[in-house]
Amino acid sequence: MPALLGMFFLERNPRRECTGEPPSLVLPSIMSRRARALPYLFLLLLPLGYALGCGNSSGTDGSGGGGPTTGGATSTGGAGPTTGGATATGGDSSTTGGATSTGGTDATGGGATTGGATSTGGGDGTGGGGPTTGGIVPGTDNYDCSPASGTVPALQLVEVTDGLDTPILVTHAPNDLERMFVVEQNGSIAIVENGTVLETRFLEFEEKVFSEPDGMGAFNEQGFLGLAFHPDYETNGLFYVHYNAAASGNVYPGATNGDAIVSEFHVSDDPNVADAASERVVLFIDDPAVNHNGGTIAFGSDGYLYYGLGDGGGGGDPNDNGQNPATLNGKILRIDPLESGEEPYTTPADNLIEAEPSAAPEVWDYGLRNPYRFNFDACTGALYIGDVGQNAWEEVNVELAGEGHKNYGWNVMEATHCYEASTCDETGLTLPIAEYENPQPVNQGDPNPSRAVIGGTVYRGADVSALRGAYFYLDAYSGETWYLFYNEDSGEVTGPTRVDEDLNPAGDELFIAAIQNAADGELLFVSRGQGAIYQLALE
Q1: Which of 240, 202, 225, 227 has the alpha carbon at shortest distance from 338?
Q2: How many domains are there within the chain?
Q3: What is the pLDDT of residues 6-53, one digit of tens each?
Q4: String of DSSP letters for 355-399
Q5: For residue 531, what are the contacts with CB-CB under 8 A and spacing of at least 6?
Q6: Using CB atoms within 10 A as the burial measure, which of 139, 141, 243, 400 is most buried?
């Protein structure tokens, strides 16, 4: 299969040797967010002489809001990683569950709007007189935040465009309904406008990107991996890229092949062409190995930039980065990427360091192996993380908006299982909401063995109402595809439901590298194997 020979970034080890509570008012934690918010709203409206009524919701958990945080962040670090500090022995959260599924094949649970979106109908945003439109994540004004309704119909993938060169991600500028921006692994950004790939690339910087196999054969995990537009892109023209640097590109002093870079660029006077000379390096991280590079960068509902970085590579986390909050590898990082005086970025004061003094200032969550793809639910701000496993288990983690400070367990655990041990201490670990097992042993010649989860995103479109609020994810190699509903109030999971017979019949021939939202909340599937973008649709 020629397409498979180009597959690259998620094979964990081709040689198989890597064999909120609100302040000042304490309410019971079992109450829903909406219920906990009622006392505050009542006190606010009481002087006006009426009880709770209609109106726009501005968020109930204090972690959202429609606009970015553009100032006030405390600068607690510079461009380099913190290299000292003690290894964390626990965390600030307890074990929060496992991967137990409650079953179900239809879209009847989960997916409720939990605040922050403006209701265009009546009621409280969970139903009533009309759809709830617009998310709390900046730039998602056209998403549909109404709850799921009806039954799940037959589904299919419909091709949007093809002719792309090694596409691995698609995204949109804030509220831009006309254009899609496609990350091409070798070092360029293509624009798809009305289904047509524009001839001129938005950005080309291949000379700075390292994407050679470098001893890993056809499986290359490096290259141009992530793209995010600033929430104020319409006015400031800024966007951010994550890539592995080529030493010959002279991107950063002392950079070697494969080092991790997050850079800022500016659009030119032509809205379809970036200013390639405008690059400003925001974050540089020395990368000790060619694998486990993470991939995604994305802005959350708080306006900060989140960055997923793998544990540094090698089997079993030989550098013990996952459980060491003082390093940047094996983490979700959270920064304000805007330049501040002589600092290339600043870090929010409420990052992990607030609870764990040994943590690097940039760290938000830790205990991850390779969080290649993560996404925020635009309507609730919840963060869904697909973390690629070692050999046996793949996992999906979720945290509610603004929570953070999670220890997801690697390398104490692989998903809900002790890693290379019969027992282990789960104290302080947050376990995944979903997992699946890889075949054992995994042989390279086996047809379509599962071995690398692609964390997807939550459907927030209008076309398939029964799936609003459903989180989609898949395995890059086998093509197995699932969706599930996660109830943010109860923590209950409905599903997962497997749908790859409809959505990925070609398996690894498609090699889906990302599942992303379009600007209207519909789902886009990025096929690296076919150089194409597909959209979820009714059959």
Answers
A1: 240
A2: 1
A3: 344 444 443 333 433 333 333 333 343 334 443 433 333 333 333 333
A4: T-TTS-TTEEEE--S---EEEE-TTT--EEEEE--SSSEEEEEEE
A5: 162, 163, 164, 165, 166, 167
A6: 243
Question: Is 139 domain-assigned?
Answer: no
Residue 66 has pLDDT above 90, yes or no: no
Does the residue 132 lie in any domain? no
- 533 in a domain, yes or no? no
Strand-pairing partners, residue 191, are 181
Q: Which structural domain range is residue 402 located in?
A: 68-103+162-454
Q: Which residues contact 306 (CB under 8 A, 6 or more apart)?
A: 296, 297, 298, 299, 300, 332, 333, 334, 364, 374, 376, 383
Residue 10 lies in a domain: no
Whichever domain contains 348, its CATH number is 2.120.10.30
Q: Give the integer Cα–Cα distance in Å for 298 and 229.
A: 8
Q: How far apart are CA 221 and CA 310, in angstroms?
A: 11
Burial class (CB in 10 A: 0-12, 13-18, 19+), 468: buried
Task: Mention every residue, 6+ apart, whose C-beta is less than 8 A from residue 475.
Answer: 394, 436, 450, 451, 452, 453, 454, 481
Side-chain half-sphere CA neighbours of 538 within 13 A: 9
- Looking at residue 62, its amino acid is G
Per-residue model confidence as pLDDT tens digits over 366-410:
999 999 999 999 999 999 999 999 989 999 999 999 999 999 999
Best CA proximity match to 114, nearest among 370, 398, 324: 398
Give the SS3 label for residue 256: coil
Instruction: Provide the 3-class DSSP secondary structure of residue 274.
Output: strand
Minimum mean pLDDT among 77-91, 210-224, 525-539: which range?
77-91
Q: Which residues contact 198 (CB under 8 A, 6 or more apart)?
A: 190, 191, 192, 272
pTM exceeds 0.90 for this model: no
Answer yes or no: are the C-beta atoms of 409 and 418 closer than 8 Å: no
Q: Cα(182)–Cα(63) distance, rounded to whole angstroms?
A: 29
Q: How many CB atoms lie within 10 A of CB 425?
A: 12
